[in-house]
Amino acid sequence: CKTLQEKLPGKVSLPGSPVYTSEESTYYSALLSEMKPACRVTPESAKDVSIAMNILTRNQCKFAVRSAGHMPWVGASNIDAPGVTFDMLKMNTVTVSDDRSVVRVGAGSRWGPFYDALDPHNLTVVGARSNTVGFGGYLLGG
């Protein structure tokens, strides 16, 4: 976690910090909220994810990726130390192209804001029933 903190200042939280505590308290499953990663990485861009992944893979660190925290399987959206959890919540943009043929969705997006972004364009898609479910977990089977 020290190397992650050096390379991603302000984007890594440690146990006991307000950000860490806030992020761990919002899981759908109580079992996952009880897991305690060594640190939590909150990337804001693909570059941040790349930097963190290079550090973790080079050091053979286990990790979990959280989109919104609804995935109930142990190790899917949270992990115990010495593992690291990625919380994608800040990568939550939804952009509709000018011709409305493409919608770009950030890995931390949730279905509610996504549907809200489509409404003004008179677009829809089949997706999660709950507005708080994340895109990442839903599309990967959560």
Write the layout of secondary structure elements.
Blueprint: H1 2-7, E1 12-13, H2 18-24, H3 30-33, E2 39-41, H4 46-58, E3 63-66, E4 84-87, E5 94-96, E6 103-105, H5 111-118, H6 135-139
Parallel strand pairs: 2-4, 3-4
Antiparallel strand pairs: 1-2, 5-6
Structural commentary:
By secondary structure, the protein is an alpha/beta fold. The protein has two domains: about 90 residues, 2-Layer Sandwich (Uridine Diphospho-n-acetylenolpyruvylglucosamine Reductase, domain 2); about 45 residues, no CATH class. It has six helices and six strands; from the N terminus they run αβααβαββββαα. The strands form two sheets. Strands 1-2-4-3 form a four-stranded mixed beta sheet. A two-stranded antiparallel sheet has the order 5-6. Strand 5 and strand 6 form a beta hairpin. It starts with a helix and ends with a helix. This is FAD-binding PCMH-type domain-containing protein.
Q: Please identify the structural class as seen in this structure.
A: alpha/beta
> What's the CATH topology name of the largest domain?
Uridine Diphospho-n-acetylenolpyruvylglucosamine Reductase, domain 2
Q: Say how many strands there are.
A: 6
How many discrete domains?
2
Distance between the termini: 27 Å
Tally the helices.
6
Radius of gyration: 16 Å
Q: Can you write the helix and strand succession as a string?
A: HEHHEHEEEEHH
Helix content: 25-40%
The average pLDDT score comes to: 92
- Percent range for β-strand residues: 5-15%
Spatial shape: globular
GO molecular function, one term: oxidoreductase activity
Domain FAD-binding PCMH-type: 33-142
InterPro entries: FAD-bd_PCMH, FAD-bd_PCMH-like_sf, FAD-bd_PCMH_sub2, FAD-linked_Oxidoreductase, Oxid_FAD_bind_N
Family: Belongs to the oxygen-dependent FAD-linked oxidoreductase family.
